[in-house]
Amino acid sequence: MRQLKVPLKDVIVDFDSEVDLSAMPASQAKDHVQGLYSFLPERAEVQIEGDTVVISFPELKPGKQESGTKAYKQGLDAAAQGNYIKAIDLFQRSLRDLPDYIDARRNLAMAYLEAGNVPSAKKHLLELFRLTSRDQWGLLLAANLFAKHENNLPLAAKFYNKAYTIDPTDPYILTSYAALLSEMGDDSESQSMYEEAISASPEYPNPYFGLALLFLKQSKFNDVLNVLDRMFAAPASQDPRSTPVYNQGRQLFSRIYEIVAGTPPPGSAGTPRRAARGRPKAIWAPH
């Protein structure tokens, strides 16, 4: 028997409400829980034991682990190629075999989001969080959804903070959270988080660029140049998704350099000082 355990107080009823199941009478909480977990197959058992929801799954039939894992990996390949409809079908197939597969459920939500189906992405994120309250990547995905697709900054902050609590050293969490804090006007904490992200992963360019934008907002032009110089002096990211960040960094450096110095930067036109010294290009290295 395979089991997942979730603190009753952490079970999310709805993103738009603050219902605490642990504060309800036991019978009422039980009724809520049975409805909330109706997305699971009938063979799964859901019970409340003290202050914990316990989800039990029967042992897998022969071949189910292999077929579920295979479909999941194929889904990742389809998503990487931008074929999100195919990825959705494959992740769903994986979950039919492995309903407790957290990675498949999270990536199903992500595929729906990439396909532009925000309601379905939210639906599957709710299902994910009812199976685990400590999936930092799911929490980060939810925070990004609320920040970028619904402009719900307070709710985004709530989920960024949950992810940050689980792993306060993750550069992706730190960078995203820092950007939100800047947008919400907390520049001091935003700057601190950007610096933490840079320390955690010096080759990741996004926190440098985010910090440069923060300094730009404050009209600290020399600080903009200095942090971009640091970005181009650091080891280069091998992720192709970083290429646009480097390109935007060069453009911003050139623009601010001309404001400060009254002349284009030395080297190639529009190229930062350090970038002109043969910075390596980013190549693929999936995260």
Tally of individual helices: 12
Q: What fold name stands as the CATH topology of the domain at 62-132?
A: Serine Threonine Protein Phosphatase 5, Tetratricopeptide repeat
Instruction: Identify the strand order in the major beta sheet.
Output: 1-3-2
Q: How many strands appear in the DSSP assignment?
A: 3
Strand content: 5-15%
* Mean pLDDT reading: 92
Question: Distance between the terminal alpha carbons, to the nearest Å?
Answer: 32 Å
- Give the helices and strands as they follow along the chain: EHEEHHHHHHHHHHH
The first-level CATH class of the domain at 62-132 is given as Mainly Alpha
CATH architecture classification name of the domain at 62-132: Alpha Horseshoe
Globular, elongated, flat, extended or rod-shaped: what is the shape? Answer: elongated
Radius of gyration: 22 Å
Low-pLDDT stretches are 275-287
Structural class: mainly alpha
How would you name the CATH homologous superfamily of the domain at 62-132? Tetratricopeptide repeat domain
Describe the sheet with the most strands: 3 strands, antiparallel
Helix content: 55-70%
